[in-house]
Design a protein that fits this description.
This protein is of the alpha+beta class. It contains 17 helices and 21 strands. Strands 13-17-20-19-18-21-16-15-14 form a 9-stranded antiparallel sheet. Strands 1-2-3-6-7-9-11-12 form an 8-stranded mixed sheet, with helices on both faces. A hairpin with a 2-residue loop joins strand 14 and strand 15. The protein is globular and about 80 Å long. It starts with a helix and ends with a helix.
Length: 565
């Protein structure tokens, strides 16, 4: 099934389309591939050969509908999804410029080089990677805010075990964040698409719109055409699975649904499974319910939605207080919840429910690295070798990783004098309902601080080795001062007055807003950490209850305001 001519044809068609576009490109400094993950993918491959090879042997396919989930297949699909973040945007731009100058062969070489890291990974897996759709720098026709998707195919080289993995990239450039924000509104799809249901705009338009005068410029049509081209030389039926993470998961869900409706268009390729990771909701009830019926009636393939414990993205979009909707955003299927300390558990179906908006929680569980750790635990019963719960080794292993901690510390220099002037009696509240943990490697530290409904993620420079607090007390005038803000934090040992005590001073806008006193289990000396602490709401029953009551109250207000409109 390794067909160089088919691959070249797809690349050339892709270049012709890109050459017509007014390209814009603005990468996000910190995308969902968190610090170090791009390098780590090669290490993940080395450490996870058993899962990868098992998934490939299965053709990343679990069998007939209602077959049990196989987490080796899940793991392999995840690796494909993660690899999509390795596209080199700068080389794509150079390829288009070269093509416009008339050097078609040179442009093709540059386009191939833009996926070098993905190609190398695929080669390690025994697969071939081919770009299908690369429209990250182009707005769909008629839209000036959102941009198109990036997707590719991982193709088996084994003629006796043929399969195709269609993978969509998640959020990685600034314009893609607009797709995420645009998703809160819906459009009713035409009857021939997606059961005519109400679909999130930021996900529907990029996948089912045109982008140029070129034939097959609609990304979904490009995917379907690629499946047909790649499988044309196969001697036996090719199983095709669809996968993606985050925004890519939303695209994957819609692409899989439409393929489920109209088929692959060739007898040589069958539709297999859908694997999504950290997927937002993609549509309302009138989309999800027909898909559930279609999946029940299918004889081949299953839809698996994987949720990392605490991943807030899987809870959005939710029905807003206005316009009041009795047709809410819901997920299309039941989920499996994975974590770093427990076996995977089935999640509840949202069919027939009315999910309500909840307060945001930390984004860390949505990161690709966090999913990797949880899926490693799901398949082996342990965390990856060399990874601690805070992911510090990962952060330090990245190019520029240590500079991240230096930058976190640099803003604290001018405020060190505040540590000496702090008086605990100046604060009205003292809370002992706190938890603190920190890990340190090579004078870099990552930690978490929890108090009530808040959790702070600390990144600092300094040696935190041996810090083990027996109890923690937070002094502040109001926890509201810490809500959803980034504070500087300075940690110091108290000194000779109390050798078993240390303090953390939290500073916002040059003002001390809180002080934490740590009672240590043993004497500590020379503690000197400078960094930042980002505070968010924790995912607690109390926060969920408050959010639910707020939602109900808001709905009542809007019902009264618009009753006579």
């Amino acid at each position: 099934m390794d067909s160089p001519d088919a691959y070249k044809k797809i690349r050339q068609s892709h270049l012709e389309e890109l050459a017509e576009l007014d390209l814009v490109n603005e990468p996000v400094p910190m995308s969902l591939m968190r610090r170090g993950d791009s390098n780590d993918l090669f290490q993940w491959t080395k450490d996870s050969q058993a899962q990868i090879q098992a998934g490939i042997a299965n053709r990343v396919f679990g069998g007939n509908t209602n077959s049990p989930i196989d987490f080796n297949n899940v793991f392999m699909a995840f690796m494909e999804s993660a690899a999509m973040y390795l596209r080199d945007e700068s080389l794509v731009m150079k390829a288009v410029e070269t093509f416009r100058e008339g050097d078609k062969n040179g442009a093709l070489r540059l386009l191939e080089q833009s996926t070098t890291a993905i190609d190398e990974l695929a080669e390690l897996w025994g697969l071939k990677f081919i770009v299908i759709c690369d429209l990250l720098e182009k707005h769909p026709d008629g839209h000036r805010i959102i941009v198109g998707p990036y997707c590719g195919a991982f193709v088996s080289k084994d003629l006796n075990n043929p399969f195709i993995g269609i993978a969509f990239k998640g959020t990685g450039v600034r314009a893609e964040w607009m797709n995420d924000l645009y998703a809160v509104g819906t459009i009713r799809a035409p009857e021939e698409f997606l059961f005519g249901g109400q679909i999130s705009r930021g996900f529907y338009y990029p996948l089912f719109s045109t982008y140029s005068s070129q034939p097959f410029s609609e990304p979904f049509a490009l995917v379907k055409k690629a499946i047909q081209s790649i499988s044309s030389s196969a001697s036996k039926t090719v199983i095709t699975h669809i996968t993606g993470h985050s925004l890519g998961a939303a695209y994957a869900s819609l692409c899989y649904t439409q393929l489920r409706i109209e088929g692959t268009g060739t007898e040589k390729a069958d539709l297999g499974d859908l694997y999504t990771f950290g997927s937002p909701r993609v549509g309302r009830r009138d989309f999800a319910s027909p898909l559930e019926v279609a999946m029940t009636a299918a004889t081949c393939g299953s839809a698996w939605r994987i949720v990392n414990q605490g991943d807030y993205v899987t809870k959005v979009p939710a029905s807003a207080p206005w316009p009041i909707s009795r047709d809410p955003f819901i997920h299309v299927d039941a989920s499996y919840i994975v974590s770093q300390n427990a076996k995977p558990m089935p999640g509840p179906s949202e069919i027939g429910t009315y999910p309500r908006r909840t307060l945001p929680t930390p984004w860390k569980p949505h990161g690709v690295g966090e999913y990797y750790k949880s899926l490693t635990f799901a398949t082996t019963g342990r965390l990856p070798s060399g990874y601690d719960d805070l992911g510090l080794q990962k952060a330090l292993g990245a190019p520029g990783g240590i500079e991240y901690f230096k930058a976190a510390a640099s803003g604290c220099v001018d405020h060190r004098h505040l540590v000496e002037s702090v008086k605990l009696q100046d604060f009205a509240v003292a809370s002992t309902q706190c938890a603190f943990s920190i890990d340190s490697v090579d004078r870099c530290a990552l930690g978490t601080f929890k108090v009530g409904p808040l959790v702070g993620e600390i990144a600092a420079r300094g040696d935190a080795t041996g810090i083990d607090a027996d109890s923690v007390t937070l002094h502040c005038n109001s926890l509201k001062a810490l809500c959803c803000v980034d504070t500087q934090c300075i940690m110091r040992a108290t000194g000779d007055a109390n050798p078993k005590e240390a303090t953390i001073v939290f500073i916002a806008d040059g003002v001390v807003v809180a002080v934490a006193v740590l009672a240590m289990k043993s004497e500590v000396k020379d503690i000197c950490l400078d960094g930042t602490c980002a505070w968010e709401f924790a995912d607690t029953p109390l926060v969920e209850k408050v959010s639910e009551e707020w939602q109900k109250a808001t709905e009542v207000v809007f019902e009264q305001l618009f009753a006579n409109v």
